[in-house]
Amino acid sequence: MTNFGYTLMTEQSGPRELVSYAVAAERVGFDFEVMSDHYSPWLTEQGHAPYAWTVLGAVAQATSRVGLMTYVTCPTMRYHPAVVAQKAATLQILAEGRFTLGLGSGENLNEHVVGEGWPAIQDRQAMLREAVEIIRSLHSGELVDHRGEYFQVDSARVWDVPDEGVEIGLAVAGDRAIEELAPLGDHLIGVEPDPSLVEKWNAVKGAPQIPGTARAIGQIPICWDPDEDTAIKKAHEQFRWFAGGWSVNADLPTPAGFAGATQFVRPEDVADSIPCGPDLDKIVEAVGEFAKAGFTDVAIVQIGDEGQQRFLDEAAGPLLEKLRAG
After folding, report:
1. Domain locations along the chain
2. Mean pLDDT over all residues of the chain?
3. CATH architecture observed for domain 3-325
4. Which of 96, 133, 138, 310 has the highest CB neighbour number within 10 Å of its CB?
5. Residues annotated as catalytic (active site), given as ranges
6. pTM higher than 0.85, yes or no?
7. CA quadruple 246, 248, 254, 256: dihedral positive or negative?
C-alpha cells in the first residue's frame, strides 16, 4: 500500500505558516511530511526560504503522528557532514523516531552562497558518499576522527544520539549514482515515476530492497484550485522552473537565472506536466504513476502559499480518500 505525504515547501511559505500547514496536514490524514532545505527560492515570485531545520524542530513538537523528512539536505558544502549528523540526531530525538534524513548532492542555487564554488557532478557524488560515511560514524555515538579526500573531522562526537538511530534516504537519478549510493542508503529518493530507478536500485549488490526494508519516496507537484485557469496561472508563476529538469536545475545559481531559463515556458506547457484545477481524478492519475513505477511513498506539493489552507481544508481529505481507494 502506498503512503501519501505532504510537502512543506520552504520556498513558498514563511516559517509560522509552514508549522500551521504541518499540523493541518497531519489532522487531515497525510502519512508523512517532507520539507525542502533551501537557502533561496527557485523564483522570486515564490518569495521565501526559512531555515528548514528550525522549522522542522517546531513541526516535530507541533505534530505527533506523521513521519518527517528532509527532501533533501545537501551535507557537503553549505553544511559540513559533522553538523548534519548532530542536527539530524537532535531532530530524531525531538520527533521521537519519526524522522528520516533525506540527502542529495545539492543544487548550485543553495550551495554557492558559502563561496566555495560549484563542483562537477562526479565530485559532488563523491563528496556525498564521504559525507554519508561520516554521518553514519557519528550516529554511533563514538568519538570520530576522519581524514578523507574532501572532509576532515577532528575528535568529534554526537552526544545526544537517538536510540533508534536515523535512517537515511538518498536522492539518485543516473546509473552511476544508483550503483555507488544504493548500498549506502536505507531508502531511495526520486522525483520522477521511472520504474528503472527502483529496478536498478534493487539490482545493486548490498542495496536494501524495495519493497522490503527500503522505501522509494517520490514527489509530485499539483495545483488544486476550484478554478482551473487560476490554478494554471499560479502554477506557471511559481513552478515554471520545474520544466527545466534536474540536470539543468542543479546548475543554475540564482532565481534570476531560473527566470531567464524559463522565460519562454508558457502556462499551457506547465499545465501539460502538472495537474491543475479542481479535478481530483486527474491528480490521482498523476500520483498513481509513482505507484506503478514501484514507489512506496509519494509526497504531494500543493503549489503556492495562497490557497494552501483551502487545499488542506477542502481538497486534501477527499483526495486522500480517492488515492487510497485506488
Report:
1. 3-325
2. 96
3. Alpha-Beta Barrel (3.20)
4. 138
5. 38, 107
6. yes
7. negative
